[in-house]
Design goal:
single chain; 326 residues; mainly alpha; Peroxidase, domain 1; Peroxidase, domain 2; 2 domains; two-stranded antiparallel ribbon; 13 helices; globular
């Protein structure tokens, strides 16, 4: 009997050792032992591309948001579609997502040093963080240990749109556990963003026949010159900056712009008008440090949405395709 109890105790001891692995959570320095240079590798890739094209900050912020708000931060947005199986990339909101090649470059370098170790989901999260800092935004630590998802379905892509009201957009955010303040904060990422005319042309006087009272007339004139009119739209759906002041700098000027009715997208301008959010907009416009801290906190929280950890999901060898099942 004593021997049986001893064997049981040993078995229980090893089970107790395994349980933390099965229920592993995100943590700072997750790759410290398995791939010590992982974060530096990703940073170097981002920095090289940022020097050539500083619009990658907006691109990565959009990619990260579009990934986390579907199935959680699981890199499902990176999967390429096939003839038999469409992916999230086929969904309308994702057709203009870009910088997949940056993620590919980081992944190839990581696979050469640490095969099947660093997830594509963590690459997106870390690359976005580094791009924000390079553009002048806050520097913040991010926990890692995410794993990559096994599903990418375009029918599941249901994101808040540019024509949403504040209350409509908030429903999407609260469904993911985010607050109104975090929504107002994260939309501040538009300080480095741009949008195609098709996303806002219904606000322009040349399309609706009258000036939108919520838009600065001078801005309307600028946008009409770029986008054309309902009868003669500009070719190739041009893009314009969402922050017409410091377009490539990550700062709080976006909030000052929308207070002056210079919000390009309907949802952006509504932030400064809606009573529920206008006070936060004024606070962020007056205090850049407050916005930076709030943004860092909101990004860390968003990066934790429905993550896969432990033995869930997989570590893709190629971010564009699921691993072959053995």
């Amino acid at each position: 009997m004593k021997m049986k109890m001893t064997m049981f105790s040993i078995s229980f001891f090893f089970l107790a050792l395994l349980l933390p692995l099965a229920f592993a959570q995100l943590r700072l320095g997750f790759y410290a032992s398995s791939c010590p240079n992982a974060e530096n590798i990703i940073h170097q890739v981002v920095q090289r591309r940022f020097i050539r094209n500083n619009s990658i900050t907006a691109a990565l912020l959009r990619m990260h948001f579009h990934d986390c708000f579907v199935r959680g931060c699981d890199a499902s947005i990176l999967i390429d579609s096939t003839r038999r199986r469409p992916s999230e990339k086929d969904a309308g909101p994702n057709l203009t997502v870009r910088e997949f090649e940056l993620i590919d470059e980081a992944k190839r370098t990581l696979e050469a040093q640490c095969p099947s170790t660093v997830s594509c989901a963590d690459i997106i999260t870390l690359a976005t963080r580094d791009a924000v800092a390079l553009a002048g935004g806050p520097r913040y630590n991010i926990s890692t240990g995410r794993r990559d998802g096994l599903v990418s379905n375009p029918d599941e892509v249901n994101l808040p749109g540019p024509s949403f009201s504040v209350s409509e957009a908030l429903q999407s955010f609260t469904a993911k556990g985010m607050t109104l303040k975090e929504m107002v904060t994260l939309l501040g990422a538009h300080t480095t963003g741009f949008a195609h005319c098709s996303f806002f042309e219904d606000r322009l006087s040349s399309f609706q026949g009258t000036l939108d009272p919520t838009m600065d007339p001078a801005l309307d004139s600028v946008l009409v010159r770029v986008c054309g009119s309902a009868t003669n739209p500009a070719r190739n759906d041009p893009t314009v900056f969402l922050d017409q002041n410091t377009s490539f700098v990550f700062d709080n000027q976006f909030y000052n712009q929308i207070l002056m009715k210079r919000g390009v997208l309907h949802i952006d301008q509504q932030l400064a008008i809606d009573q529920s959010s206008s006070g936060m907009v004024r606070d962020f416009a007056a205090n850049g440090a407050s916005f930076s801290q709030s943004f860092a906190d909101a990004m860390i929280k968003m990066g934790n949405i429905d993550v896969l950890v432990g033995n869930a999901g997989e570590i893709r060898r190629n971010c564009r395709v699921f691993n072959r099942r053995r």
